[in-house]
Amino acid sequence: MESVQMVKKSLWMTALVLFFTLMFAPASAYADKCKFYEPVLIEQDYSCDFTHKLVVALKQQEKGPLSFEEANERIIQLSQAEAMDTYLGSKSKTGEVLYAVNEAFDISLKKVSDLDAGKQTDRYPDEIVEGVKKTAKYSLTEEEILLLPKVQVMDFYLKSRNDRLEGPEIRQLINTIFGINLDGISSLEGAGIGLFSKEQWIIQGEKDLFVVYTSVDDVEARIEATEYFKEQTGLDGFPDDLKRQLEEIGYTYNEAIDAYFYANPTGESVPDEFKGRTLGTLAKYIQQNYSDLLN
Predict the structure, then answer these.
(1) Cα gap 51→70, rounded to integer Å
(2) Distance (Å, whole) CA 70 – CA 75
(3) What is the CA 222 to chain-centroid distance, rounded?
(4) Nearest to 37 by CA among 51, 56, 53
(5) 222-235 pLDDT per residue, tens
(6) Alpha carbon of 137 to those of 108, 150, 160: distances in Å?
(7) Where does residue 49 rank: exposed (0-12), middle (13-18), buried (19+ CB within 10 A)?
(8) Cα–Cα distance between 103 and 113 in angstroms, integer?
(9) Total-model pTM
(10) Between the CA of residue 53 and those of 96, 193, 206, what are the distances in Å?
(11) Average pLDDT over residues 136-141
(12) Which residue of 94, 175, 196, 246 is most buried, as measured by CB atoms within 10 A?
């Protein structure tokens, strides 16, 4: 009887140890894993999970040994668009795309879709319309497709392409459906320009000199000088030569909000060309006159 009791006690202790091992080992392993990625987590503000997946992807590309130090250095050097492409590879299922954009750019496409924010259009390009019709299990008119959530439109189209789009194609698709130019955003990293659009920060940095705000539907835009810019330059607002450049684009100064303002007279979302001219004008002006304030 005593031996039976000892066996039962031994089995109970083994089960208890196994339980705590299963409960706490994953968290401990996860924490240990994250320590290896601290340089990336500090520099890029990516999650540990996304960073780990980037390291795995880089190792697969390398087809050979790759130290954590080498992987971290490579990831830090990646632009946002390159990080997105490295993670996605050739896979482009909607869930993966949403995750990659949220991690690499800190932009929630689902939030944009839920708010019906972003690009307002009276029709999608024929290729997207045909892709949606091909994939949807029910008949849809062009008007009904316009009423679908943007994420669903993207999902239908990606499935029509067998979820096999490359990164540049995915970003072009996102720009067409959501009105978010990820390539343009990626190129503005560290340029000293903040961007608040679709009810969320798209680009934001401590040393931003100017911030561009757009309305939910992208019909209106305003530009403000930041407090950092005013403190560093001693100016109350915009330099005179920048004022002239913004007015040439079509902006007018609104004294009530101390900002330069533009509203598309057609009531449609401002075209990509206008967005590009706005951000390009600011970026060029900063580089020519205030690049030292970015360091």
Answers:
(1) 13
(2) 9
(3) 21
(4) 51
(5) 999 999 999 999 99
(6) 27, 17, 12
(7) middle
(8) 17
(9) 0.75
(10) 12, 29, 28
(11) 87
(12) 246
